[in-house]
Prior knowledge:
Layout lengths: L6 E3 L6 E5 L8 E6 L12 H6 L2 E2 L9 E3 L4 E7 L7 E2 L1 H14 L3 E3 L2 E3 L1 H4 L1 E6 L5 E7 L11 E2 L4 E4 L11 E6 L10 E2 L1 E9 L4 E7 L6 E4 L6
Parallel strand pairs: 1-16
Antiparallel strand pairs: 2-3, 2-18, 3-14, 4-7, 5-13, 6-10, 6-12, 8-9, 10-11, 11-14, 14-15, 16-17, 16-18
Amino acid sequence: MQQKVNATIDFPLRGEWVSLRPLGHHPYALDFMKVGKDKRHVSLRTLSWYLLSIIPAKNFYGFGDLIFSPVDGVVIRVSDGWKDREVTSFLNAIIIWFTATFLFRPKINGSEIDIRPNAGNYVMIKSATGLVAFLAHMRCGSVKVMTGQVITAGQFVGEVGNSGNTTAPHLHINLFDQADDLLHSKLVKFTFRRFDQWNGRSWEVVENSIPIEGALVRSHADNGH
């Protein structure tokens, strides 16, 4: 039986991004990588360069881009200070992906769980419904909110980074049903209230949905609305 959609949130980025759900990714979690003006490449380097050499994180278009809260709520958990991976490569990406997907086990200290090796720097925001928005792999030193702070949807919270088990700079987003006990948290199905999706010729407005795999999307606010 398909799970009922339990939340509608705002799109947390500006600019043009490709929506990704890598192999082994939870179906209720999304990754976003920014593309350049050609709407194709995610970095200043070519694909062949990525396959044969290394690319500095700062050469990816999304590195350092602003992240905005997708919900009104209270910040309940914050992690900052976890160093970004300075470079990435195809071989390194395969190793990281395999480790994060199949081998990662969080460190547990009593009732506390340390997800930083996998998630890097992150922010968790609890909405009025009790659901928790999770924004991960943020840039080291960029988090601009603190635990207990009340924030609104659209408020700047930090920057896209390359921290944790990440194959390249991107934003990971999902919703948890709760964050009091992360070992038993469940991911909740959600939709974005509104965004624009590129159909190959023009932008189309999409409401109460999520992007299809590989789709090029942007915030509807980028269209002046």
